[in-house]
Amino acid sequence: MVYLLNEYHMDQVFATNVINIWSGTTNFGPLIGAYISDAHIGKFKTLAFASIASLLGMISLTLTAAIPQLRPPRCTKIQLQRDQCMGPTKGQLGILYMSLGFLSIGAAGIRPCSLPFGVDQFDSTTDEGRKGIASFFNWYYFTFTIVIMIALTLIVYIQDSLSWVWGLGIPTSLMFCSIILFFIGTRVYMYVPPGGSVFSGIGQVFAAAYKKRGLKLPSEEELPHVVYDPSVKGTTITSKLPLTHQFSFLTKAAVVLEGEVGEDGSRLDKWSICSVQQVEEVKCLLRVIPIWASGIICFTSMSQQGTFTVSQALKMDRHLGPKFQIPAGSLGVISMLTLGLWVPFYDQILVPRLRKITKHEGGITLLQRMGIGMVFSILSMVVAGFFEEKRRASAILHASPDGIAPISVLWLSPQLILMGLAEAFSIIGQIEFYYKQFPEHMKSFANSLLFCTMAGANYLSSTIVSIVHGNTGKDGNPDWLDKNINKGRVDYFYYLIAAMGVLNLVYFLIVASRYRYKGEVPVEGEDTPIDIELSKAKHIDN
C-alpha cells in the first residue's frame, strides 16, 4: 500500500482496489493450485513451478524500484502539497500488474502444497512418524510467524528508511536461496503421486442426482435398503458418514437402479451412481457454505488493516522518540502480537475454566468462537471510525502543510488489538471448524476454504470502496474516500462496514442455530453392508 501511494502516486481508492483485487486473486488461487496438485502433477512439481513464478514476481517488482523508468518520476514538495504528482503510465502499470500476477501464481501453488508436502516426508503409520508430523506442524507455524514478524518490522523498516531497492531485493535474494535449497533435496524427498481431486467426486454426485431428479425416494425406513453403501474397510477412510435425510435431492445419487452395480459390488458408471459416503461428503460441503459465507464480511473488516489503516498512519505522528519513526506498514504487527499473546492465554488458562462451566471440550463451541470473533471485528470498525474522526479533526485544526495530525500513530492500537482478537477467535475458529466438519477425503479442500473467504472479503471490499467512492461526494457533500484523507470521511466508511457486520452477525446467528453437525461412525464398528432391494426405488410418472 505504501509503495503504491508513495512511489506510484496512486490515490488511496485506486491503491486500495489494486491491493484488494490482487489479494483476492492471491487468496482464491490456492483452490486452483490444490486441484492441479491433487488431480494432475503432484505437490513437488506444483511447488517447483510456483516457486519459480514467485521468484519472477519478486524480480520484476524489485526492478520497478531499481529502474526509474519503470515507475512515475519522484514528486517535488510543491507537487505533493498541490496534489499534482504524475501518475503511472499504462506501461508502468503493466509491469506492476505482471509482477503481482507472478506472485499470485506462486501463492496458488505454495500455499496449499508446502505444508502437505512436508507432512508427506513422514511415515504416519509409525509412532515416530506421527511424532515427527506433530513436531513439523509446530515448527512450521512457529517459523511462519517469525518470518511474518520479520517482514512487518525489519523488512518494512528497510523499505521505509533505507530504500525500496534493498527492501524488495532482500526478500528476492532469500526467495532465490530457498529455491536452491528446495531443489537440493530432490533426490531424498518422498513423492506421493496425485490421488485425484475432490472436485471430480463432487461433480459425480451432482451429475448422478440430476440424472435421477425424477426419482421418488422411498420412506426413511426403506431408504437404507435401496442405496449404494459399500464398506470402506481397507481404504484410507477412518470414519464413515451415516446416511442423513437433509438435502434429499442429493440422496437420489446413491439410490441403486438396475444395471448400475456389477456382480462384484462395484459401480459400472461413476457418473450415474455414487456411494452414501460420497453423497454425505457433498452434504457436508453444502451445510458449511452458509457458515462460510458469513465469514466474508467479517474478513472484510480485517482487510482494512492493510489499506485505509495505512493511509491513516501516513497522516499521523509516527515518531517514537526523537530519531525513530514507525513505518506505516509495520502497524499490522500489533494485531499479530495480540494474536500471539492471546492464543496461549486462551488455550492454557481460559479454556480449562470454561470447560468446567460448559462441560464442552473446547470451552465453547466453534460456532460460538466464530461469533465472538465477529463481535470483535464490529467493535474494531466502530473504534476505528471514532479515532479517525478525532484524527481528521486534529489534522484540519492544525492545518500543517503535509496534512499530518499531531496525534501519535499508537492511537490506532485499540482498533488493531480488537482486530487481533477478532482474528484469534474467527480465523482459528474457522480453521478448526472446517477441519472437523469435513471428512478426511476433503481436508485439502477444507484448508482452501479459509483462503476463499479471504478472497471473497477482498473482492467485496473492493466493490464497497468503488460504490462508496462513486456515490459520495455529490451535491456538495464530501467524498468519503477522497484521495486526500483529511478531506474525506473514512470514519463514515468504517461505520458502514460495522453496520454491515451487525447485519452479518444476525445472519450468522440464524444459520448457526440451524446448523447440523457432521455425524461419524468408526470404520471398526461399521455395519455389514445391507442387501439392495431395487424394487423400492421408482420414477415418478411424468
Automatic annotation (TrEMBL):
Per the UniProt record, which residue ranges are transmembrane? 47-70, 91-110, 139-158, 165-185, 284-304, 324-345, 366-387, 407-428, 449-472, 492-512
Concerning Pfam families, the annotation shows: PTR2
Which SUPFAM superfamilies did the record assign?
Answer: MFS general substrate transporter (SSF103473)
What InterPro entries does this protein map onto? Answer: MFS_trans_sf (IPR036259), POT_fam (IPR000109)
Query: What keywords are assigned to this protein?
Result: Membrane, Transmembrane, Transmembrane helix
GO MF: transmembrane transporter activity
Q: What CDD domains does the database record attribute to this sequence? A: MFS_NPF1_2 (cd17416)
The membrane topology term of the UniProt record is: Multi-pass membrane protein
Q: Which GO terms describe its cellular component?
A: membrane
The subcellular location is: Membrane
Asked if the record carries the keyword Transmembrane helix, the reply is yes
Is the keyword Transmembrane assigned to this protein?
yes
Identification of the protein by name: Major facilitator superfamily (MFS) profile domain-containing protein
